[in-house]
Task: structure prediction
Amino acid sequence: MASRSNLTRADALVASDRQTQAARRETAERAILEAAKKIVSERGLDELTLNEAGEAAGYSRALPAHYFGTRSAMLGALADYIVAEYSERVRSGPIASHGLQRLIDVIVFCTEDAERDPTTVRVYQALIGAGLTRADLRPLSARITQQAVEDIAVLIRDARQLGEIRPDVRSRTEASLIIAALRGVLFQWLINPDHVSLSRMRDSLAMNVRNALKA
Result:
């Protein structure tokens, strides 16, 4: 019979191996999603394949199918990856901790983040727009839109509770308008950056939101 110490060491080795496997998978998935993002940005959603994403990431052509299963599932993972990375940048950004100013700071940050990384924003817009014509991506587009609206609605409700936003303001309605405005501004800028001043549109949108909602 194995001793307790031997069992403990064996369990530790198994746990360590599992952690290593998990870390390797996380690294591979990130690389594949980054490769997929680059392909979509340069050539569009229709040109993306599981095989090419794996090869472009430096892994086997079969690995994306093993990890994600289908192309639609990989696009869903890509959308979640983009949103998670953005949310992390928001948490670490120079944004007020609460109130109306936090809402305004998030709007400003969104546009400044787009200037920093237009490739990611282009892919995000493509994923959203695909829901209009592709049934397989419609649930994804609806889900990430609903989450974006809810994230802004939470900020509005928090500021309303603090008395900084009028009590009659409907949080989800206003949040939907803000998301629509942000996406519209970024779409115009991505299409024609030489003729659209993102900084001016950002400042105007932030001012309009503040004036429309403040108590």
